[in-house]
From TrEMBL, chain A:
Pfam families: FAD_binding_2, Succ_DH_flav_C. Residues 503-597 form the Fumarate reductase/succinate dehydrogenase flavoprotein-like C-terminal domain. GO terms for molecular function: steroid dehydrogenase activity, acting on the CH-CH group of donors. The keyword Flavoprotein applies. This is Fumarate reductase/succinate dehydrogenase flavoprotein subunit. Its cofactor is FAD. The keyword Endoplasmic reticulum does not apply. It comes from Streptomyces jumonjinensis. Residues 10-442 form the FAD-dependent oxidoreductase 2 FAD-binding domain. The active site is at R334 (proton acceptor). It comes from the Bacteria.
TrEMBL record, chain B:
One of its GO terms (molecular function) is 2 iron, 2 sulfur cluster binding. GO terms for biological process: respiratory electron transport chain; tricarboxylic acid cycle. This is Succinate dehydrogenase/fumarate reductase iron-sulfur subunit. Residues 6-93 form the 2Fe-2S ferredoxin-type domain. Keywords: 2Fe-2S, 4Fe-4S, Iron, Iron-sulfur, Metal-binding, Oxidoreductase. Belongs to the succinate dehydrogenase/fumarate reductase iron-sulfur protein family. Its cofactor is [4Fe-4S] cluster; [2Fe-2S] cluster; [3Fe-4S] cluster. GO terms for cellular component: plasma membrane. The lineage of its organism: Bacteria, Bacillati, Actinomycetota, Actinomycetes, Kitasatosporales. Pathway: Carbohydrate metabolism; tricarboxylic acid cycle. It comes from Streptomyces jumonjinensis.
UniProtKB/TrEMBL annotation, chain C:
The keyword Membrane applies. It comes from Streptomyces jumonjinensis. The chain crosses the membrane at residues 32-52, 93-116, 156-176, 182-203, 243-263. This is Succinate dehydrogenase. The lineage of its organism: Bacteria, Bacillati, Actinomycetota, Actinomycetes, Kitasatosporales. Keywords: Membrane, Transmembrane, Transmembrane helix.
Length: 654, 256, 273
């Protein structure tokens, strides 16, 4: 084949959402020549969809807030499965990351004394979310985008070229992280053999392949929601980073924990799953079933009994006087609310289109609703013909976020076992434990995006030799990417598969069999079905040519979705308890013995073709690892009575 | 309401040429134009190129022209059309076409780079920024922009006159200049950058003849003309065409 | 409808080489031409009417009413009016209609008004005729050069429009007299004048330049609470600038026409008290 274009960079960031852009800024400010590569146009990443806010304990609204309280809330929300060091760093650094955005031009909503306003959210003890109406994600992505542009303007002044030290490759996809054959240098080799040497990419517009050579690759590709039928996630969320890491030899952690946001739109069918922000509840919205009952009062779990209001009157008073009342149970962590809605619908008390009612119309004047929830008002008006100032919304759970992800070092965001590979944001695992609190995602992007960029740049600067990009591996990656065009020449003569059909079957399978409530038999069926789909996906074929061909792009994404789906299903089958985003009908209790156990997914046979044709052979192998005990000063932030609900005896007294 | 078969005409082609192609396709209750395009992809024409992302009117990717009007495909409900109507979908006509419904929008990214960024106020540390809500309201309205570039597409200054693309930033980026000029803490003036003047001199504000098409197409309902472009024109007048203001500023009585 | 198989004729704008090859200059299926046609029709009607009335130099005063087209009346050849507003500033050398002396100001104000600019650029000059409908012009430089760069002097006409509106207010006060100039009376004409002056003021104050001067030019509203509040009010009016532009245009023509009817004897002003 013809010679591919190759470019040399110091750091390649895959993904241009909040984490990717923050990483790129950090790497560039360290002096690393940095390339960002993203599937969409610059500034369209899924981060724009985030509505509620950025959690950071600035204490602008309630001065009682501080990082310790934030840490505590995060651990509680994650049911103590969190990588506690990540939760600690996150809580400590989030305020600085938010303030820094202001110096780049962000305009948050203000308090009366001119500080950044903060709002209430599920699971957060104090008003903590810096926000801009209900379009905080847009503000975040635009601010980071404009910061990147300002760095490019500096480079233009200095070097006469906007892209001298920071370039965005938009509408490009990475299909492989490339590695060298190990370092001759002993110091580097200590870290574990083959090092990252670059990324194999194609331009969506032209279909042209190219290679970005770089010693550091930061994965910031977001989540996996597009493997599920009902999801709030955009098309980009096909688990690319998860799969790239797996294929590069890095393990994924705790993939069974998938968050179903309790409130997605349920009607009309074409928008089913689109998010209804938690701010609706944070600002006073209530959930009712078809009998008009505020059913959440029946679903307060034992571990949260003391923290939530027991009567509607108390819950309502809390909005005005949070210091002397407990919060209403509509603001329980997302997993609890999602399960409650699921139970109500199953019990036959759902709304006409299979959700429950979320009502703000009777709780706030129309004027206030339009001011505080403008995009929700707009979204329902435009897409469902529902005026939320006059009637209740119909909502139901929607696949929203994956807590699991690439196993990383808490401080440096370096992926386990692959030198030069880093991960930040949703694609990285551990920070949120078994369930993420609303608002902690955007702060996670900023805190760990920065850390990943920083350490990726430092790692690249510290190398004594540049890892080599191997021609054979480039050729193999090219052949793999071209396979969908030769599907009709398959040896066995079987007809090519339609990638869209395969994708729909995959989404249906994950939704029905590995969804919000899980059972052993169903997950076993799911694994069998995933194996069949994988075998068929190898024959996925496309018409036309390589220029902006969505059928081809989907065929390539299928590999990633199938790998990641298998991780989710296998890990979910293995974990015989219910915790956070993982609910087993056959094991409904949370087990303290499972608390320190993490499940790592790796490729079962790293040297084989990931699109193995044998539908029976597992692609993913699981490993149980026990996490480090929580540091004592952090444990001391909790009451003993609370800790005994989560931690085993020996963890408490160690 | 039941489903029905709708007549669609979709432009297919690339820079070497193309044509409107006819399709008959199923439409169900509550669907939007983007759903129908996706159905075409999944069932009739798997390589139909279309750019989209969030499908909720938040990212501004799926801009196209539907029955000749620039719109977001994900926010155009099928119920606004009659069942008998033929619905024509074409790519944006102000930008070079790439393929089918996808256009090359790099013009906009080039213009974005030409607007000097926010200048942080010297001597104010991160965390010490204090701004009143009433002072950030105006710029916040402009920051609602999802960069769908429909305003850039519909603006006749560049849509009908390719040669103006060098001199004219377009409504989106003139609005960006206005946003920064109204930012309560932007210190561009102190650093020697007069955004009011450069709006006219470098970003082509004078080309705008305020015919308001940008405001008409904005899916976010931003009052681009009334709140950004005209105020910016008035600010440029302050600098360039108003001797009273000029005299006042020389005497040093003016404090904004 | 022809589609893009045949090579497009003009190779610029939407028919440029790199753009999607689509034959028609627009694909709009709605009645996009209606709005510019109505605008052009309405403006044309006013121009014809006002030209006739401005040059007529007759039937503009019927005590106590003076036509807004002839107020203030600044030449010696003005009809005698008791209490004003006729001041012989220009003396006897001016032989033409005195309306021409004063109409220049409201004309300039409206000609450079941000709303009317949109209206006539679209309605008369088809630049553009409607959104996403290709304009017929080969070249376009907008308001970057002479003469259209002069649109930037709008605020001076705004300054001038204020005393004009003040004088029209004075006229309205004078309308509370009867034919013998006795105070404390009211006729149908008084009501016409009242409606007109309210609309004139609303239009004048809703002007974009006014909004800018009153507060829009500030960087920190919080340091100027009074101007901020005024800016808010003007902003509310400004949202209805188009409506006010049309209604005040119609009302001023009606006020003039009413005076014409009464002055020419075609109609007798009904007196209320």
């Amino acid at each position: 084949m013809t010679q591919l274009e190759r470019q040399q960079w110091d750091v390649v960031v895959v993904g241009a959402g909040g984490a990717g852009l923050r990483a790129a800024i950090a790497a560039r400010e360290q002096g690393a020549r940095t390339a960002v590569i993203c599937k969409s146009l610059f500034g369209k990443a899924h981060t724009v969809m985030a509505e509620g806010g950025i959690a950071a304990s600035m204490g602008n609204v309630n001065s009682g807030d501080n990082w310790q309280v934030h840490f505590r809330d995060t651990m509680r929300g994650g049911k103590f499965l969190n990588q506690w060091r990540m939760a600690e760093l996150h809580a400590q650094e989030a305020p600085d990351r938010v303030w820094e955005l202001e110096t780049w031009g962000a305009l948050f909503d203000r308090t009366a004394d001119g500080k950044i306003s903060q709002r209430n959210f599920g699971g957060h003890e104090y008003p903590r979310l810096a926000h801009v109406g209900d379009r905080t994600g847009l503000e975040l992505i635009r601010t980071l985008q404009q910061k990147i542009v300002s760095l490019q303007q500096q480079d233009k002044e200095e070097y006469g070229d906007y892209e001298a030290r920071l370039k965005v490759f938009q509408e490009c996809t990475v299909t492989r992280v490339l590695k060298d054959h190990g370092s001759d240098n002993d110091a580097d080799a200590d870290a574990g053999g083959e090092r990252v040497s670059g990324a194999f990419c194609y331009e969506r517009e032209s279909g042209r392949f190219f290679v970005l050579e770089a010693p550091s690759v930061v994965l910031a590709t977001g989540g996996i929601g597009k493997s599920f039928k009902v999801t709030s996630n955009s098309w980009e969320y096909t688990g690319d980073g998860h799969a790239l890491a797996l294929l590069a030899g890095a393990p994924l952690r705790n993939m069974e924990f998938v968050q179903f946001h309790p409130t997605g739109m349920v009607w009309p069918p074409s928008v089913k799953g689109i998010l209804v922000t938690e701010s609706v509840r944070g600002d006073g919205g209530v959930l009712r079933n078809s009998e008009g009952k505020r059913f959440m009062f029946d679903y307060i779990p034992e571990v949260f009994k003391e923290k939530y209001a027991q009567t509607e009157e108390e819950g309502d008073r809390w909005y005005e006087d949070p210091d002397h009342n407990r919060r209403p149970p509509e603001l329980l962590p997302r997993d609890e609310v999602a399960r409650a809605i699921n139970s109500e619908v199953k019990a036959g008390r759902g709304s006409p289109h299979g959700g429950v009612f979320l009502d703000v119309s009777t709780r706030m004047p129309a004027e206030v609703i339009r001011r505080r929830l403008p995009s929700m008002y707009h979204q329902f008006k435009e897409l469902a013909d529902v005026d939320i100032t006059a009637e209740a919304m119909e909502v139901g759970p929607t696949c929203h976020y994956v807590m699991g992800g690439i196993s990383v070092d808490s401080d440096t965001a370096a992926a386990t076992g692959v030198p030069g590979l880093f991960a930040a944001g949703e694609v990285a695992g551990g920070m949120h434990g078994s369930n993420r609190l609303g608002g902690n995602s955007l702060s996670d992007l900023l805190v760990f995006g920065r850390r990943a960029g920083l350490h990726a740049a430092e790692y690249a600067a510290g190398l004594t030799d540049r890892p080599i990009v191997d021609d054979d591996r480039v050729a193999a990656a090219a052949a793999e990417a071209l396979r969908p065009f030769s599907a009709d020449t398959a040896a066995d003569g079987a007809a090519p598969e339609n990638p869209y059909t395969l994708h729909q079957e995959l989404q249906q399978t994950m939704n029905d069999l590995v969804g919000i409530i899980r059972r052993e038999g169903e997950m076993a069926r799911a694994l069998k079905k995933l194996g069949e789909l994988r075998a068929r996906a190898r024959r996925a074929g496309v018409e036309g040519h390589r220029q902006f061909n969505p059928g081809w792009h989907l065929s390539l994404d299928l590999r990633n979705m199938l790998l990641v789906s298998e991780c989710v299903a296998r890990a979910a089958l293995e974990r015989t308890e219910s915790r956070g985003g993982h609910t087993r009908e056959d094991f409904p209790a949370m087990e303290r013995t499972w608390r320190p156990v993490n499940l790592l997914c790796r490729l079962a046979n790293p040297s084989a073709d990931p699109q193995e044709t044998d539908p029976v052979r597992a692609q993913i192998a699981l490993e149980r690892v026990v996490t480090d005990p929580i540091r004592h000063d952090l444990l001391a932030l909790f009451e003993k009575e609370e800790l005994v609900k989560y931690l085993a005896e020996e963890e408490l007294y160690e | 309401m039941s489903s029905y078969q709708a007549a669609f005409r979709v432009w297919r082609g690339d820079q070497t040429g193309g044509d409107l192609e006819d399709f008959t396709v199923e439409v169900n209750e509550g669907e939007v134009v983007l759903d129908i395009i996706h159905r075409l992809q999944a069932t009739q024409t798997s390589d139909l190129a279309v750019r989209w992302n969030c499908k909720a009117g938040k990212c501004g990717s799926c801009s196209a022209e539907i029955n000749g009007r620039p719109r977001l495909m994900c926010m155009t409900r099928m119920s606004v059309f009659s069942r008998e109507e033929t619905i024509t979908v074409t790519p944006l006509r102000a930008f070079p076409v790439v393929r089918d419904l996808v256009t090359d929008v790099s013009f906009n990214y080039a213009k974005a780079r030409e607007v000097p960024s926010f200048v942080p106020p010297p001597g104010v540390a991160a965390g010490d920024y204090r701004m009143q809500q009433m002072d950030v309201d105006r710029s916040q309205e402009f920051r609602k922009c999802i960069e769908c570039f429909l305003c850039q597409d519909t603006c006749h200054v560049v849509r009908d006159h390719e040669e103006n693309k060098t001199a004219f930033a377009g409504p989106r980026f003139l609005m960006r200049v206005a946003e920064l000029d109204m930012h309560p803490l932007d210190a561009a003036a102190e650093s020697g950058l007069d955004r009011k003047k450069t709006a006219q001199d470098e970003h082509g504000l004078g080309y705008c003849n305020i015919t308001k098409c940008c405001t008409e197409v904005c899916p976010e309902g931003i009052k681009i003309t009334d709140n950004a472009l005209i105020p910016l024109k008035e600010r440029a007048v302050d600098r360039k065409y108003d001797p009273l203001v000029w005299l006042g500023s020389r005497i040093g009585r003016r404090r904004a | 409808m022809a589609t893009g198989t045949e090579p497009p004729q003009i190779h610029t704008g939407v028919h440029g080489a790199a753009r999607a090859a689509i034959g028609p200059r627009h694909l709009r299926t709605d009645r996009w031409w209606l709005a510019p046609a109505l605008t052009a029709g309405g403006l044309l009607a006013f121009i014809v009417y006002s030209t006739w009335r401005a040059f007529a130099n007759a039937d503009y005063y019927a005590a106590p009413y003076v036509s807004p087209f002839y107020s203030p009346c600044l030449a010696e050849n003005c009809a005698p009016m008791k209490g004003g507003p006729n001041w012989e500033v220009f003396g006897s050398w001016w032989g033409l209609s005195p309306a021409l002396l004063i109409l220049i100001f409201p004309l300039g104000f409206r000609l450079t008004c941000y709303y009317y600019r949109k209206a006539y650029y679209r309605g008369f000059w088809a630049s553009p005729p409607a959104c996403a409908v290709a304009e017929p012009h080969k070249k376009y430089t907008g308001e970057t050069r002479f003469p259209l760069i002069l649109q930037n002097i709008h605020r001076y006409f705004f300054y001038a429009a204020i005393p004009v509106a003040g004088i029209l207010t004075y006229d309205t006060v004078l309308a509370f007299r009867d034919e013998q100039y006795a105070w404390g009376h009211m006729g149908l004409g008084t009501v016409v004048f009242l409606v007109n002056i309210v609309l004139i003021w609303a239009y004048t104050l809703s002007c974009h330049s006014c909004r800018h001067i009153i507060g829009g030019r500030l960087k920190h509203f919080s340091r100027h609470p009074v101007r901020y509040r005024l800016w808010g009010w003007v902003g509310k009016l400004n949202e209805r600038h188009m409506l006010l532009a049309w209604s005040s245009l119609i009302s001023v023509a009606l006020a003039d026409f009413y005076v014409y009817l009464v002055a020419s004897g075609a109609f007798d002003d009904p007196r209320f008290f």
